[in-house]
Specification:
heterodimer, A: 339 residues, alpha+beta, four-stranded antiparallel β-sheet, 10 helices, 10 strands, 30% helix, 19% strand, extended, B: 1151 residues, nine-stranded mixed β-sheet, nine-stranded antiparallel β-sheet, 37 helices, 33 strands, 43% helix, elongated
């Protein structure tokens, strides 16, 4: 008896797992599966590709460079860094109705917002309203941690400091009179950024929270005066600020500035002449950058992007071609494995 | 051990003498001289490496001594010290994980070694101290202790035999576990000492420990109170070796001379060197490549960074000004730190976690061997044992198998099978069927139920009973009561069922040759029992239960050149008879030719069946003839010069004109399925070498029985015998033979595709090569320098072209030498040694893979092996199924790991071109850390444990499949290049696909834009999905675990990303990923690009698989896509292993 028990104890378990005999599905990629699969994938991709391509084609985009490099540019005057508070005006016309809602972007190029040192140069605690970080900002903010008088900068760091500060006004010129196109500055930043991630300190009035701190060196106004008209768009939850703080992935980028959703322009910008008034503040020529504004409408796939549609079409048709080639190859080999 | 040796060399230098002095029983010996008892090592056997106290520091030290770990430690330190893009946690955490897992594993393994050591060290032994018998633990034996050993116990240390329970002062031992010889050897007590051990006052002076088993020189000074001290010389016949077993002797007493690590057995073991598998060498080579890629990436980035910064405005744009510290730093220091930062950023390309995964794969995977119920042997009630899990995949790479014979190929169990008398076949069928046990089979030879004449029968049986040198085992009447030993110790097979005299039933026979015992037993079954030899008289009990007496006049001893032995006896009736038995080739020329043909058929048939055949002849000597022979023999025996030759001449003269009576067939029972196993191995392209300490004839017949030699195999012999044929000088003859064989086998051989292909039915001639130990040492240590090298090469080349090589009369260390020779030969083939005895340990340790058989000869082989299996037949499944699968699994694992890390890091590298070479990571730190640990580790681990690209039955049935993975086929540069290119392709696709999408970063229908972390997250999502699905595509064996793990880790990735981005983590400085993932999923474009890139990455893969298909005849045997990319013959990498790192336990202690 004892021996028998020992034997049972020693004997390996006879389970499917220990004996490597687990029931298993052994897929075979045979021509019978792959060729129809390729055809299906190809068709689906071509379908998506067509939809994307058509959609992308229907999106209207208007880009206006206002860096002012060329002498002829109306903003040439402003591109001189010594000129302060320069205003310039860009006239353009829209040949046909620019369907709404129209999105107004500003774009910068050769601007490395994805620079590592630049990217870490901010203090998320500060930006979520933590008053302790107001007096002692994170050292990642260097060199915009303290000003020359050793006073803490709020919001600290390079990202905040370099916030884009050109402002735009768009006028439609109707019979020689300028009619301002109303801009909607809400909903241009991520909902979570606006509502959760960035918080003003719970101090009223807001400016008291900033006692003993200085504004970022580059800023004309302190943070609590970013939008004095609307407390819900002021301080760290100013939407322009939020848009800026979300760093762009690539050195040529555009950021949403305003939406045109109101009044007469809710359906879009009607054909006609327009004038863009620019408060030119942001220097880019020192690093060979460019500035532009982009008017665009969006579809379900976002802004205009031909790449996706073309890629889908190409791959879809490649699948079809490959399935035909495979069919030929297999016909030649007479389907050796289908018995 | 080394330390101990050093101690001995340094510490004891004032007494550094060539001999040691031992005081028997620690008595008051040599009171005259001031005798300082020297310190000898204790009898402890230590194979463990750590103690509880030194485990942590020693283990850490060992782990960081490995370059890979050290590399990761450096990366970690760089991250801590220098301002780098990723936090130290990203590399510190995996490193910590690796170190911990390895430490736990090694700790566990060392614990097992401690346990094994304790088993040996705590074995109870009896020590005589001051006349009292004291039970002690084996480890407490000191040099000089008098130890008592009982029958069937093994000696706990090397002993000088002082006293035996046998009258004649002898004892029998079997050294099966030392040198594989299972016969009984006689050892002698030191003369004059056996009387009274208590009063014995003696010292022993003997040489320092040395490994030669057969050499021992010593002196014993016996002080008797009143007389001058007597001096006795001691030789190997007085020395009982540790590991040998006492047989047929109730008990002995001996004094310990060498203990513990100084015993001859311990000295015969080489240190267990660290074994590294070929896969690991490949990994190291690949690592080198990846390290180069890493460094060049970092260099490229650093260079470009400074080139780029030279352009005006780029170095320090106003929006990104440098800190004071940065400005102050020296340019070159900055460059260097930038370089380090890039290294840190890209260091994930060398996967830390690969080691963990490989480690776990090996460790867990080895359980499948342990668990395999096919390896379970109900007889010994044990299954397979895995001692090192590092070599699993090496089992799939074996090119040479070195096998022991005794106990491995054979059961070491001689059995009389049949005989033929006057051309009639007698087969012994069932012991209990008839009293006389005679059954005549109706074989092809004797179609009728015929028997030879009774007279011839009896003559034949008498011959069997008389013509031998068997001694009767100390029978039961003496000492102990009857029936104490029901079992015969010589060989357990039995006469038990047979109804004979109850006393005879228990007769045991001892002989230096187990064949003779089998023959004597065989004749006993047929009614003729040998009753022993008493003062030159042999007694035989014949069928009528009468005792016949024969006077033994002369024994013409067996020697391997004559290959026969004879006895001359005088019967009661006064006839002088000569009985001779020997190999057919030596008997046939000496008998009347007309008798030969009838028997030759039987002999040949038996031989092809693998039995050991002997022919028996006799001759009646007339008085004159005898007188002449007697005179001749006596004269020759007294001759002082050329005694051997003179004896030989007389022998030859006497053994002529005999008449042939019959032949016998004795089977050394093969292990179960030995022949099938060998056949399968050869079918798998593995060359089998038999290394044995046994005689050539025996070994040869075993080879025939195992079908290692076939009937049409041409045997090339290079033995002492062939060397002594004719030629004046052995050297010359050796040279001639080698050149001759080489010409025959190597040069004239039809050009076969090297090595691998060999089919049984091929038209080409099969060659078998036979060499013996003495000749081998001549080949290896040839006197002239130039010759020895070329001899060695000739020898190797011959052997490599032979299907089977048989090396007989090998000393344990010679076996290792052979293995080493082959191991280091061109192409460094993977070798496997399999054996069961302690004599095989050295070759088990030497070979790449050592396999121990849990046989009868102790546990030495098992303890020193890498794998232990109960039976030889299990080797087939171990290699063909387990080895093959493990290799494919781990090869795929390795390639996949490099691939997935390459396409992981390549986008990050490419991103540097778009972020001003600022070391901006593309992925969040959490992703960087988790990618290898969580997101992609489990599917490949499951794959590498469960994958069966070909199912086990098919692998076992088609041994040739084993060749497909030979020569490390899946880890050659070809497949490696394929995987690397695949990784590059995927990496490029991921990055540029998403980059093109981000030309317009407004990807949502509300016009909002995505930032850099969204970019990274999209790339990462594509990456995780593609890499996982790529593995899914390669998986041929989807168990529920694979499903669970593959879909589970994808689900986990999605879940984790939501979770990680769904909460503001208080411990994080920057909430980079807050809601990035969720936002990404809200964008249709992101979805579409992810799908697009995944499909695009995998399409070529699918195409490749499909286009490969039609050319494969049997889809079930299809290999994973990359298998045939690397040619079988491509040279192995010779790159020095850079990041060498094994998890093996390199124990610096032996045993």
């Amino acid at each position: 008896m004892v021996k028998e028990e020992r034997e049972i104890a020693n004997r390996p378990d006879n389970t499917a797992f220990t004996q490597q005999r687990l029931p298993a599905w052994q897929p075979m990629l045979s021509a019978g599966i792959v060729i129809p699969g390729f055809v299906l994938i190809g068709l689906a991709f071509i379908g998506i590709g067509v939809a994307l391509f058509v959609t992308s084609r229907s999106i209207q985009v208007m880009e206006l460079d206002y860096t002012g490099v060329e002498n002829s540019s109306p903003c040439f005057r402003c591109s001189d860094p010594d000129v302060k508070n320069c205003m310039c005006q860009l006239d353009f016309s829209i040949p046909s109705l620019f369907e709404g809602p129209v999105f107004f972007y500003y774009g910068l190029s050769n601007y490395f917002q994805n620079y590592r040192r630049y990217g870490v140069s901010k203090d998320d605690d500060q930006l979520s309203g933590d008053l302790d970080s107001f007096t002692s900002p994170s050292d990642t903010c260097a060199p915009y941690e303290f000003d020359g008088n050793n006073k803490p900068i709020v919001p600290c760091g390079s990202v905040a400091n370099s916030m884009f500060n050109d402002t735009f006004k768009l006028y439609q010129i109707i019979n020689g009179t300028r009619k301002q196109v109303p801009f909607d500055g809400k909903g241009i930043a991520w909902w979570t950024d606006y509502n959760v991630k960035y918080r003003n300190p719970s101090v009223t009035p807001l400016r008291n929270a900033f006692n003993g701190t200085v504004k970022p060196l580059f800023w004309p106004r302190p943070a609590y005066e970013l939008d004095t008209s609307d407390p819900a768009n002021n301080g760290f939850i100013n939407q322009d600020f939020l848009v800026w703080m979300r760093r762009a992935a690539l050195p040529d980028f555009r950021k949403l500035y305003r939406r045109i959703t109101e009044g007469d322009y809710a359906r879009g910008l009607p054909a006609g002449d327009y004038s863009l008034e620019i408060a030119y503040n942001y220097p880019v020529l020192s690093f060979d950058g460019r500035k532009k504004v982009v008017l665009s409408n969006v579809s379900w796939m976002g802004g205009k992007n031909e790449f996706l549609g073309i890629a889908y079409l190409v791959i879809g048709s490649m699948c079809i071609v490959m399935s035909i080639v495979m069919l030929i190859v297999y016909a030649k080999f007479k389907f050796p494995e289908e018995e | 051990m080394l330390r101990r040796r050093l101690n001995r060399l340094l510490g004891g230098d004032e007494r550094r003498v060539d001999s040691r002095t031992i005081c028997v029983g620690h008595g008051s010996c040599s009171a005259a001289e001031a005798f300082i008892p020297p310190k000898f090592c204790d009898n402890r056997v230590v194979s463990s490496k750590y103690t509880v106290w030194n485990f942590l520091p020693k283990n850490l030290f060992e782990q960081f001594r490995r370059i890979a770990n050290f590399y990761f430690l450096i990366i970690f330190l760089v991250q801590v010290i220098v301002d780098t893009p990723t936090s130290p946690v990203t590399s510190g955490l995996p490193l910590f994980f690796v170190i911990t897992v390895t430490a736990i594993k090694q700790g566990y393994e060392d614990w097992l070694r401690h346990k094994a050591d304790n088993e040996v060290n705590k074995y109870p032994v009896t020590v005589l101290e001051n006349g009292q018998r004291i039970r002690k633990e084996s480890e407490k034996i000191k040099v000089g202790d008098v130890v008592e050993v009982e029958e069937d116990e093994t000696f706990p240390c090397d002993l000088i035999l002082l006293q035996s329970s046998r009258d004649d002062g002898t004892c029998f031992v079997t050294t099966a576990s030392l040198d594989g010889e299972s016969n009984h050897k006689t050892h002698y007590t030191v003369p004059d000492t056996e009387k009274d051990l208590e009063s014995l006052n003696a010292t022993i002076e003997c040489e320092q420990p040395q490994p030669d088993l057969y050499k021992f020189v010593g002196r014993m000074h016996i002080d008797k109170n009143d007389q001058v001290p007597a001096v006795r010389s001691l030789g190997p016949e007085n020395l009982l070796l540790k590991g040998a077993t006492l047989k047929n002797t109730q008990k002995i007493c001996g004094v310990a001379v060498y203990t513990g690590m100084e015993t001859k057995m311990a000295l015969n073991y080489q240190g267990k060197s660290q074994k590294r598998s070929a896969v690991e060498k490949s990994i190291n080579a690949f690592l080198l490549v990846y390290l180069c890629i890493l460094v060049s990436k970092a260099l490229v980035c650093t260079t470009l960074k400074y080139v780029w910064q030279n352009k005006p405005g780029q170095d320090e744009p106003w929006y990104n000004q440098k800190t004071e510290k940065e400005k102050d730093t020296n340019l070159y220091v900055k460059m260097f730190t930038d370089f380090l930062s890039f290294m840190v950023l890209f260091n994930f390309i060398i996967p830390v976690s690969m080691y963990v995964t490989v480690e776990m794969q090996k460790f867990l995977g080895s359980y499948f061997i342990t668990w395999d119920k096919d390896f379970f042997d109900p007889e010994i009630n044990e299954g397979a044992l895995v001692n090192t899990s590092d070599l699993n995949e090496e089992l799939g790479q074996v090119e040479y198998v070195f096998t022991d014979k005794t106990g491995t190929l054979t059961q070491n169990n001689m059995e009389f099978i049949e005989c033929c008398i006057d051309g009639f076949q007698y087969k012994y069928r069932d012991a209990s069927s008839e009293l006389d046990g005679f059954c005549v089979t109706d074989g092809p030879v004797s179609k009728l139920q015929q028997k030879a004449g009774r007279e011839r029968e009896e003559l034949f049986l008498r011959a069997l009973c008389l013509c031998h040198t068997v001694k009767l085992k100390e029978s039961t009447e003496r000492g102990q009561g009857q029936g104490q030993r029901l079992f015969d110790q010589v060989d357990g097979l039995g006469v038990d069922g047979e109804v004979l005299h109850s006393t005879l039933e228990q007769i045991g026979f001892i002989s230096s040759s187990p064949d003779e015992v089998a023959l004597v037993k065989g004749s006993m079954r047929y009614g003729f029992t040998f009753l022993g030899l008493e003062s030159k008289t042999m007694k035989i009990l014949n069928r009528n239960n009468d005792v016949e007496l024969y006077e033994l006049l002369h024994v013409l001893n067996f020697d391997p050149v004559r290959r026969r032995m004879s006895v001359i006896v005088r019967s009661e009736s006064g006839d002088t008879l000569l009985f001779c038995k020997g190999a057919d080739s030596s008997i046939f020329p000496r008998v009347r030719q007309e008798e030969v043909e009838r028997i030759r058929m039987h002999v040949e048939r038996n031989a092809t069946e693998g039995y050991r055949t002997l022919c028996v002849a006799y001759k009646v000597l007339s008085a004159e003839e005898y007188a002449q022979a007697d005179a001749g023999l006596s004269e020759a025996r007294l001759a002082l010069q050329d005694r051997e030759e003179k004896l030989m001449a007389v022998y030859n003269q006497v053994e002529t004109g005999m008449s042939l009576i019959g032949a016998t067939a004795v089977e050394d029972r093969l292990q179960e399925e030995a022949a099938e196993t060998m056949e399968a191995l050869q079918g798998a392209g593995i060359k089998v070498w038999v290394l044995t300490g046994d005689k050539m004839e025996t070994a040869k017949s075993t080879c025939y029985a195992c079908r290692l030699f076939q009937r049409n195999t041409e045997l090339l012999e290079l033995t002492v015998r062939t060397l002594e044929d004719g030629q004046p000088s052995r050297e010359q003859r050796l040279h001639d033979l080698l050149v001759d064989y080489h010409k025959k086998v190597v040069q004239d051989a039809p050009p076969v595709k090297a090595g691998v292909s060999r089919s049984w039915s091929s038209a080409g001639q099969d060659y078998g090569f036979i060499i013996d130990g003495a000749t081998l040492s001549m080949v290896l240590n040839s006197s002239s320098e130039s010759n020895s090298c070329s001899y060695k090469n000739l020898f190797l080349q011959i052997c490599q072209n032979c299907t089977t090589v048989l090396c007989c009369r090998m000393a344990p260390l010679q076996k290792a030498q052979i293995v080493k020779l082959v191991k280091n030969s061109k192409g460094s083939p993977i070798t496997l040694s399999i054996g069961d005895g302690a004599n095989d340990v050295s070759m088990i340790l030497e070979a790449h893979v050592g396999i121990g058989i849990k046989g009868k000869e102790g546990r030495q082989a098992v303890r020193n092996s890498d794998y232990a299996i109960p039976k030889l037949k299990h080797l087939k499944k171990l290699l063909l199924a387990h080895g093959h699968l493990y290799y494919v699994r781990i090869a795929h694992l390795v390639q996949y790991f490099f691939y997935k890390n390459l396409c992981f890091i390549l986008p990050q590298f490419l991103y540097q071109f778009f972020c001003g070479y600022s070391q901006q990571p593309l992925y969040d730190a959490a992703y960087l850390t988790m990618y290898n640990i969580c997101f992609t580790s489990m599917p490949i681990l499951a794959y590498s444990l469960l994958e069966q690209h070909i199912c086990i039955e098919v692998l076992l049935d088609n041994a040739t499949l084993y060749r497909e993975i030979g020569k490390n086929a899946m880890l050659q540069w070809g497949p490696f290049l394929y995987w690397t290119l695949l990784g590059v392709f995927h990496g490029l696709l991921f990055f540029f696909g998403v980059e093109l999408l981000f030309c317009n970063s407004a990807l949502q229908d509300n016009g909002q834009v995505f930032g850099n972390w969204s970019f990274g997250t999209i790339v990462f999502t594509v990456l995780v999905f593609t890499v996982t699905l790529k593995l899914a595509l390669d998986t041929r064996h989807w168990t529920w675990i694979n499903h669970f793990v593959i879909w589970g880790s994808l689900a986990f990735y999605v879940f984790f990303s939501f979770f990680w981005g769904g909460i503001i983590w208080p411990f994080l400085r920057q909430q980079r990923l807050y809601f990035v993932f969720a936002n990404m999923l809200s964008s249709v474009s992101a979805w579409l690009v992810i799908i697009l890139l995944i499909v695009l990455s995998l399409l070529p893969e699918i195409l490749l698989v499909v286009f490969r298909n039609p050319r494969r005849p049997n889809p079930r045997q299809k290999k994973p896509a990359q298998s045939s990319v690397g040619g079988n013959q491509s040279p192995r990498s010779s790159a020095r292993p850079l990041l060498m790192r094994t998890f093996s336990d390199e124990s610096n202690m032996v045993i």
